[in-house]
Structure formats: structure tokens, C-alpha cells
Amino acid sequence: MPAEIKLRQASVHDLAAIMQIERECFVRDAWSEQNMLDELAAPHTFYLVAEMGERIVGYAGLSNLAGSAQADIQTIAVSPDSRGLGIGRKIMFALTAEAKARGAREILLEVRADNTVAQKLYRVFGFKQIGIRKKYYQPDGVDAFVMKTELPKKQPIVLGIESSCDETGVGIVRGNELLANVISSSMDQHARFGGVVPEIAARAHLEALQSTLDKALTEAGISLGDIDAIAVTNGPGLAGALMVGIGAAKALAVALDKPIYAVNHLVGHVGVDLLERGALETPTIALLVSGGHTSLLLVNDLLDDVNLLGETIDDAAGEAFDKVARVLSLPYPGGPQIDKAAATGNPKAIRFPRGLSLPKDMAEHRYDFSFSGLKTAVARHVELAASRGEEINIADVAASFREAVVDVLVTKAIDACLEHKVPRLLLGGGVIANARLREVAAERCAKHGIELRIPALSLCTDNGAMIAALGAQLMMAGRAGSGLAFGADSTLPVTQVQSR
Ligand code: KG4
Ligand code: ZN
């Protein structure tokens, strides 16, 4: 049995052994000793030798200028009496791994046109002929084939921090793959106020960030040193709350000496879909409904072309649920409570208004939403019943209110799909938990041949994974980091995917 073959990095002390193989293999066009010495000592090269027992039986060299996406295999040789043992293949594995580790995206090499054995080996490693250099090898006058292989793109590990509202979210992704998604919510602390209190939210982020980060790292099974970039929400959202996440993200980026990506929260809600299905299919219409936003987007390209079709002109959809729940004396957050109460109610019991849905609204507010009139209508209904001494049927009121909200949301979203000829609708935000919204969206999408996409609820509510996913997309697209000058922007427009 032949002795085990081991690879190690070459040094100038291996020169004699290397030159012996060089002369055996390349006879008339062998490099000179000086030439080989220069190569071994150059800062941009990586040479390795293959040892069988104590003896050097092969060597190879790679050259890659710092920061360059291209690596070149300079030479590869195996002693004639040690061929057929898979040494060339082992060397190629090691060179390819080294090129990847140096951040190269492609490797090039030249091979003698008459060396079919070597060409076959290179093809196994994905090399394809891209050119020919006539009479390259002298003095024989043999042509060189230029061959190239593309290395798969590195999937960066990105840590995302979200703190735009009441959820402290830390998520970790590797490329399109979700590694961790940890959320700490301060919702309970806002309950007695019936809505999110900005100062309380900011303080809660500060208290929760460290432990949320630790949990996310544990869940992903990585340490801070493994992270390639940091992503953070810089808007839209509550300014004080955003600042806490941004401060933490900048500190991490500086400490780890890694790039930071300041990303748009709303676009994060859209991009999260790719953690479940791979690359986002575009164009898509996205309906984002939560306690903080109600937005209808046309997404032609996740990183470059996101358009706002419409948004709420007063309360957000989730906020409407929360306020109406208060009117009905249901606890905060009101969405789940109303959803539950509505299950046994009659959605047609009361005809509540559909905001901005009349023909006169179509010119200016075709895709905008308004829920404050609806909230007032529910309050009136309840007051009137009370003044008459009638008992309120909470189930019927909840079901009728829910129906009004859902009807407007889905009608406008489907209209946008039809008008823009987009056969896809993506939903995001905490209100997506609503049972009736899911039902009506599914029914109407099916009727119009529109594909409906609803990410898992843990990815629909505010979270750090969606921020990490968007950051990873930017990084993989070759975008530079944001620098450290950006700040919180509570009204960041959806068209600005990354801030600098
Ligand atoms: O996205 P999200 O978790 O975060 C913030 O906006 O902060 O959304 C929370 C909102 C709350 O307003 C809540 O009442 C609403 O989503 N929500 C619901 C349901 N579950 C949560 N609204 C309607 N039906 C639900 N089942
Ligand atoms: Zn959100």
C-alpha cells in the first residue's frame, strides 16, 4: 500500500525537491531555479507540496493579488513515478479551497494543448476552455489552452438588528438560509396604555438587546467572530427605538471590523420571503399591515426598484384593531382578541364604512387606506346601543368591523395586482395573523389567478431575520457597506432600500 499523501504549504527550503520534479515534468520548458525561488517567496502566491512519506512528490502554486476576484493556477506538477494515485486531484481541491478563502470568484490557468490528462483533471473541477494562446510553450511551439472556472459565491453570515417599534429582533442568516430568529417584545409594558409608548419601547430595546443577541448566536451555533456583516433597520419607525438598534449595530461593526448595512424596515418585510422560498420572484405586489404600517408596494426589484402605491392616511390597520378593541373593552393588543370574538359573529350584521373606497376617492387615494372613520363608526354604534340601553353583540361588532378592514385591504391589493399585471401578492406584518384576512386573500387571489405568498408568522411580525436577509442580499450583490454616518430616519421612504 502506498504511503499516505499529505499536503502542506511550501517554503523556500523545498526548492531543491521542487526543481527536481520541475525538470522531470517539463524538461525543455522548465522554470529556472531563480524563477521558482521568486515565485515561492512572492507575497501574492501560495505554493504547496505533496509529500508521500518523507518524499516530496508534487507541488503547485496559486497567485492572487490582494483584493482581486481572480486567482491563477501558476503551475501544478506530480512526479512521473507517483502518478495515478490521485495526487493531482488532492492538490486541485486544496488550491480551489485556498482561492475561495482568499475571496476569489474565478480561477484561470494555462495548459499545454497536448496535455490531455491535465485538461481532463481541470474539467472535473469545472474548468472550461475560454481561449487559446498560439505557440505559448517554447521552444516546442505548443499552444496553450486558457481555462477558467467560476467559484460559487460566498454565502455571507449576516447579523440583523431590528428595533423600529416594540420588538427587539436579532436574526442571523447565511446567504438565503435562516440560522436564527430571536425576538423580545415589550408589548406587555405598553398594554396599560393601549398602544406603543415610544420612550418605553426605546428603554426596553436597551435592556433586551444583549440577551437577544446572545440567544441568537447560540441558536445559530456561531460566535461573533464568524459574522461577515451587520445589518440594521434605520427606518421607518420610532426614532428613539431605532437609535438603540443603530447604536448597537455600529458598535458591533466597529468592534468586529465588518461592514454595516443600514436597511429599510418595510423592504425587509418583503425580502423575508426569500428565507423560505429562495430568490424573491419579481415583480410582486406587497401588502404590509401591522400596528405601525399599512403599505401597498410594487416591487420590481428588491434592491433597486421598490415603489409605494399607497399607505394609510391615518391609523395603521393593526392600530385600528387595537383601538376598536378598547372601545369593546377587550385587552391590548386588540387584533387577536377581535379575531377571536369575530369567529362566532355575523360579518354582515352591521355595514361599517370601507375607507377611501368610493368612486370619488379613486383619483387621489386609489391605493391609500383610512381606518379612523371606521373606528369612529364602531364607537358610535357602541355608544348608541348603550344610550338605548341595548346590549352590544360583541361577536357581531367584531366580525363586522373585521370584515370591513379585510375587505378594503384585499380589494385594494388585488386591484393593484390587476392594474399592474402582477400575478403575485406577498403579505407581511403582524395583522397577517388575522384568520379572515388570510381566508379572503386566498379566495380572491385564487379567483384572479394570483399567487399568494404568506411567510411564516414568526417572519411576518417585526424581526431581525428579515433585516439580516436584506443585508445579505445587498452584500451578495456586491454593494458596499453603509459607513457609520447614517442615522435613524423615522419617515424613511420605501424607495430607499439602503441608506448611507
Ligand atoms: O407586526 P407587528 O407584530 O408589530 C408592530 O406593528 O409593532 O404587528 C402587531 C399588530 C398589532 O396592532 C396587533 O393588534 C395586530 O398586529 N394583530 C392582529 C392580529 N394579530 C396581531 N390584527 C388582527 N388580527 C390578528 N389576528
Ligand atoms: Zn413592521
Explain the layout of strands and helices.
Blueprint: E1 5-9, H1 15-26, H2 33-41, E2 45-52, E3 55-63, E4 70-78, H3 87-101, E5 106-112, H4 116-124, E6 128-137, E7 142-150, E8 157-162, E9 167-174, E10 177-185, H5 187-190, H6 198-220, E11 229-235, H7 239-256, E12 260-264, H8 265-271, H9 274-277, E13 284-289, E14 294-301, E15 305-311, H10 317-327, H11 334-342, H12 362-365, H13 372-387, H14 394-419, E16 424-428, H15 435-448, E17 451-453, H16 457-460, H17 465-476, E18 498-499
Parallel strand pairs: 4-5, 8-11, 11-12, 13-16, 16-17
Antiparallel strand pairs: 1-2, 2-3, 3-4, 5-7, 6-7, 8-9, 9-10, 12-18, 13-14, 14-15
Helix pairs in contact: 6-7, 8-17, 10-11, 10-13, 10-14, 11-14, 14-15
The structure holds 5'-O-[(R)-(carboxyoxy)(hydroxy)phosphoryl]adenosine and zinc ion.
Could you describe the 3D structure shown?
- It is a single chain.
- The chain has 500 residues and is α/β, with parallel strands linked by helices.
- It has 2 domains: 5-150, 3-Layer(aba) Sandwich (Aminopeptidase); 157-499, Nucleotidyltransferase, domain 5, CATH 3.30.420.
- It has helices at residues 15-26, 33-41, 87-101, 116-124, 187-190, 198-220, 239-256, 265-271, 274-277, 317-327, 334-342, 362-365, 372-387, 394-419, 435-448, 457-460, 465-476; strands at 5-9, 45-52, 55-63, 70-78, 106-112, 128-137, 142-150, 157-162, 167-174, 177-185, 229-235, 260-264, 284-289, 294-301, 305-311, 424-428, 451-453, 498-499.
- The strands form 3 sheets. Strands 1-2-3-4-5-7-6 form a 7-stranded mixed beta sheet, sandwiched between helices.
- β13 (284-289) and β14 (294-301) form a beta hairpin.
- The longest helix is centred in the C-terminal third of the chain and has 26 residues, at 394-419.
- The protein is elongated, with a radius of gyration of 31 Å.
- The two termini are 61 Å apart.
- The relative contact order is 0.11.
- The mean pLDDT is 94.
- The protein binds 5'-O-[(R)-(carboxyoxy)(hydroxy)phosphoryl]adenosine (KG4) and zinc ion (ZN).
